[in-house]
Amino acid sequence: MSNLRQILKPSIRAVSNRMRYPHARVGSCSFVQDGSILAPGVVVGRNCHIFGAHLEAGTFLGDNVIVGPQARLAGTNVGRRCVIENEVDLFRSLLEEFVSVQAKCTINQTTVGRYSYFAREAYVNDVSIGSFASIGPRTLIGSGDHPHDLVSTSPVFYSTRRQCGTSFAQINHFIERKFISLGHDVWIGANVFVRDGVTIGDGAIVAAGATVTMDVPPYTIVGGVPAKVIRSRFPEDILKRLLALQWWGWDEARLRAAQPWFAQPDIAAFLRWAES
Length: 276
Hints:
The protein is an alpha/beta fold.
């Protein structure tokens, strides 16, 4: 009887998903926990796990969201028309509309603005990311920190998190996680490491392979290990006008109307149009 139950389990789950979410498509062998919400048009691939009620809040998938095979989502709000590719782990996060997460990314305790994307195998933890951000492949943002001025760098002596399975500390003696902020229209290249506590300003660019240990001003290009300023993207007067414009907050109609101005190199002409 138990073997028969195991054989029939995927079919029973598929029927249950169709009954609970008739307006969505849930792939075979996928599990959607009570407390989660699938909006109309959602497509969930095979062998996915969408967890809800056992966390602080359920998982919500907005209209026409696509979730690839073997993805795991928990306690997460995903805006309309987002794409979550295969083998993505997405926990306790908020994604606004039109966000794309490519295969094998891990995103935890992170907020992401609209029209942003993560390339393959990015790892992001405890981060705020603005709109129109481009996060390159294999980036590592928010991996935690270790002390350099204590006798030992091992967390077994200063942390109660039990990273080694035990701890000698009764209280935490060091802040291991510090919030990271990435602004709007930021481009992070491939294989970049961003240290905890760093702020990267609007419009900044981080070159591939960089190690970012200090704050990056808006519209600045940095690179190297550790990352250093290469140059500003624009003159100071242009930079100030772009920041004041805050175009990343425009509605979709205005963004579409502005598309030809975004896709050309004359920044002054764009500003004249935008400020008129």
